[in-house]
Design brief:
mainly alpha; 3 helices
Length: 70
Amino acid sequence: MTAAMRKMIPADEVASPCISVCELDPATGLCRGCLRTLDEIAAWSVLDANGKRAVLAALPARRVAQKPLR
């Protein structure tokens, strides 16, 4: 999502981390693009802002744990 698109989202909404690279890693169960689980992706539209922030808070640690793509 571009910076311009983020500005169009109301302040009380939390932007999705989706970057349109939608492929699940069978070893981790995480999307290779946004690092969310399938359950987190499916629930995103019904999570409240705090739930979305909790998912977002988990992503940096998942990114560090991922092996670099070669």
